[in-house]
Amino acid sequence: MKWRLALAFAMLASPAFAVLPNEQLADPALEARARTLSAGLRCVVCQNQTIDDSDADLAHDLRVLLRQRLKVGDSDQEAVAFLVKRYGAYILLKPPFETETLLLWLGPLLALLAGAVGVGFYLRRRCNDDPASFTPEEQARLAKLLKEETA
Prior knowledge:
Elements: H1 2-13, H2 28-38, H3 57-71, H4 76-87, H5 102-128, H6 136-150
Helix pairs in contact: 2-3, 3-4
């Protein structure tokens, strides 16, 4: 019973590769190139999975399209450029540093800086706040209470 549970856990914990046997190329060298290239291509539906890891229909179409481009003789760069032209730089898991992707690269840094500035303003305002002072009536009442306590 324990070995069945361990096997089920191992199957769930291991990555599922979605490349179907009918998608694979007969030429092992081309298939290796396709696998290498698809490791850098994002599934547009799943967002943080490669097209090889995704079961989405679009990922299937992208895998087939990539393999077709390699079959007709495209170089690695040409095949990837074709997909980028069709789907945008978002399809790349590591997009290039360009004006179109500037916010993508600098966005986390800008968010961190904005948060630091916000915290700085908050702390500055908090430290400059004067403690509330007593009104004359409250001061008189406090003095009276203190006299009663010491007497």
